[in-house]
Amino acid sequence: MTTIDGPDGRPRCRWCAGAPEFVPYHDSEWGFPVDDDRRLFEKLSLEAFQSGLSWRTILNKREAFRAGFANFDIDTVAGFTPLDIDRLLADAGIVRHRGKIEAVINNACRAQELIAETGSLAAYVWRFESKEAATPQTRSTSPESEALSKALKKRGWRFVGPTTVYAFMQAMGLINDHAQGCVTRAEAALARQHFVVPR
């Protein structure tokens, strides 16, 4: 079984059964295409923090992360100082991992460089949209996630391995990985049909 009935009786991806808060996240966010640089940067950052942890942990701390990281405004985070690092290390509401905190600040600086060169973070990451049809939720990386990971690392980004990047691509709609039979799969596909890929 790749789906499970949700609270309304409609089938959803089986991972929704993991926690009650997964259902609204699944229904309204996961797999829907995103072209907003702030949201894309936030998701890349949160996926970096998730490394070695569960998404439930990060999702439940998301508002605290947003508060701590200035709502993931790229320019603001790029200007964070050692005092901000100390502040975040003292913040019990987030995952207090110095390497990951420093990586987010570094990645904000790298994002500024990328935006100056390509116009937007969205225009860059959507170059790596998955074109290959695959059985949903059967892999943790893809050729596209490996390519984007390699490209970002070459630009100096940190904590952007191919598995982390694949999870980002799933969530931000660069691939529709909703299970066959999931009620949200068709909704995500329709959203992609109406989505204008940023250039």
- Helix content range: 40-55%
Q: Could you give a short account of the major beta sheet? A: 2 strands, antiparallel
Q: What is the count of helical runs? A: 11
Number of self-contained structural domains: 1
Name of the CATH homologous superfamily: Hypothetical protein, domain 2
What structural class do you assign from the helix and strand content? mainly alpha
Order of helices and strands: EEHHHHHHHHHHH
Shape by Cα distribution: globular
Radius of gyration: 17 Å
**CATH hierarchy: architecture:** Orthogonal Bundle
Distance, first to last CA: 39 Å
How would you describe what is shown here?
The structure is a single chain. With 199 residues, the chain is mainly α. It has one domain: Hypothetical protein, domain 2 (Endonuclease III, domain 1), CATH 1.10.340. It is 54% helix and 3% strand. It is built from 11 helices and 2 strands. The protein has a two-stranded antiparallel sheet with strand order 1-2. α9 crosses α10. This is DNA-3-methyladenine glycosylase 1. InterPro entries: Adenine_glyco, DNA-3mA_glycosylase, DNA_glycosylase.
